[in-house]
């Protein structure tokens, strides 16, 4: 079988080498045209946790770095239509956001052009290093202005979105504690009124104030009803104070979060308008490699088909069982003979050779 | 079994024929376009020497058991263009030169594509057709060649032939006469799948040498054609025009 495959390969070498050579030759120019040089803008953001304020985000844990948390959140936001529309409205792509087809195009554009990474490439060394705090957002665009606009819009929209979310969280908490405070205040007022009303009723009935009683017994001990009312007032006072404290804490936390965000998301390298286009070498080189691999696979399939479909007799191994092989006459390569004369020339050459052992009659040489 | 090319290569012998210097005229040739290719005559240039081929034909006739007794042998194939005539000419010349005392006759029975007269630079008529149709004596159709003990019978050149002369009783009678006159008669018969006369001709002979052109004829075709001849008469198969596409270094490396 190996002999057959080797022979078939060399017999059809030009046909079999054609796919791995021709396919990259076709694909490469297409890949170059389909992946023109792009303008890339990047922004470096220092992200971290405002740990000194005791701020605890739901997304954070001991095992997730700030970069991972923020990049994951940004990536998720970029998959939402509202955020993409918000980004688009800050750029020249705003008209696209008004139609469904435009939104689809926007989503496609952003998914292809935005790269959010927790690694950064050092410009001096060219080495990729893992980063815990430096979040790099790269945006590629067909024009320098577009890439810059997109990059800036993403960062701005993200910052605003984060701030708005925290503000919403804070106002919800404030509203909650405010209602708690009002509730406890109403309870306190009611308890105080009840106590005053009871004391006034006692005095009107001519009953001495228990506080005038001799000995060490308090009025509350002598009058259980009075004691219960006093307890109610104290409880309401505690609840009111707690609600006040919680409200103050929530207001303080909201303020801390707003201020902390400024520290936990600092744009260190602001986006700049790129001046030179970046060739997409990595993307382009994938296509020829894939074409070569595809061509090789195609050639292999072709070779297998050729070998499998070849029913002709080419060697002794192909001779039918039981058939005796008398000999194999090699192919005569006749030089400088027109193609139509080759069979005749071959026959006569073999005839002449077969008789060459005898001296030519008549002294002919 | 190693092919002849392998053997020749191993001996350092050439496997190609240089015909560039063959600018002589083909005496008696009918086709002027063949003038650049010498006929098989005494004038044939010996520069055609293709060392080793004569040994190959010796191997073939030895393995086929041909040339040692009085017999009639047919050289046959499944389809046209497989090299029957080449094998027949080569075998006839090889036997004739190896056994000078034995008389060898090469008969061309492929009436549709006669070539022997041109190849041996002789007149095409009278030939086999004349013997079968016009009762021309067989001796008149037998032509001498550059080998004294080798004669040929060309196909002939009749323009109007009625019926199928090769199927006639005259053909059987002619073969009998040839058997009496010569020690070895080699019939170059048409291809079996394209001419049904060929199967009939193989009934008249003692043995059949089958020619297969390597890489051209499909095995099922050969099997189908072989069903038309008597199995006992089959001497064996000659693989013609074999060639390896793989380079020599690779064949040596992987042992193919």
Give an overview of the whole structure.
- The complex is a heterodimer of chains A (365) and B (256).
- With 365 residues, chain A is α+β, with helices and mostly antiparallel strands.
- In chain A, 59% of the residues lie in helices and 11% in strands.
- Chain A has 2 domains: 2-165 and 266-294, no CATH class; 169-261.
- Chain A has a 4-stranded antiparallel sheet with strand order 2-5-1-6.
- In chain A, strand 3 and strand 4 (128-130) form a beta hairpin.
- The longest helix of chain A is centred in the middle third of the chain and has 61 residues, at 144-204.
- With 256 residues, chain B is an alpha/beta fold.
- Chain B has a domain at 68-245: Rossmann fold, CATH 3.40.50.300.
- A 7-stranded mixed sheet of chain B has the order 4-5-3-6-2-7-8, sandwiched between helices.
- Chains A and B meet through helix 1, strand 7, strand 8 and helix 10 of A and helix 1, strand 1, helix 2, helix 3 and helix 9 of B.
Tags for this entry?
heterodimer; A: 365 residues; alpha+beta; four-stranded antiparallel β-sheet; two-stranded antiparallel ribbon; 11% strand; elongated; disordered C terminus; B: 256 residues; alpha/beta; Rossmann fold; seven-stranded mixed β-sheet; disordered N terminus
